[in-house]
Amino acid sequence: MDLTTIIIGIVLLLAFVIPITIAVRRQKNNKQKLENELAAIGQANQMNISEKEAWKNKVIGLDRQTNKVLFLVRKKPVNEVVVVDLKEYAKCEASRGSRSVESGGKSQYQVVTAVSLRFIPRERTKPDQQLLLYNDDIDFPLDAELRIAEEWADSLNTIMRKMPKTEPAAAAVS
Fold this sequence. Notes:
A hairpin with a 7-residue loop joins strand 6 (107-121) and strand 7. By secondary structure, this protein is α+β, with helices and mostly antiparallel strands. It starts with a helix and ends in a 12-residue tail after the last helix. 34% of the residues lie in helices and 34% in strands.
């Protein structure tokens, strides 16, 4: 092999390695910024986030001391922040929306259009609380959101089952 071939090989190798390295580093830095932002928002809400998971522009965190979940979606110009107090909910489930798509005339398959964590309140008069983890109009492609929703729903249901059941406040009698 001559020197020219070796130099061309090294240049081509660097042309592939450098962009990948930069992309991985940028993704790691963005994830760290997102987690730091979650911690700051948690402190502002008197929460100490002990468990968290970040993906794309979203992060979910849990404070086991106060039994609260904090969900953050980074958006411009203003981030979306939702705090869910688990004491107010009886159950959490991974929910997914889908639609049928026709392929090749007769065959149909289901396409996931949304993935969310759905909190069902203890009081039936209150509405459900949804944390939208994936929406096909905004978030493309579907990545780990189904796994994340199922794992968090299982974990949160375990916590909610251990919490004492409280009766709705009785109306004051005069």
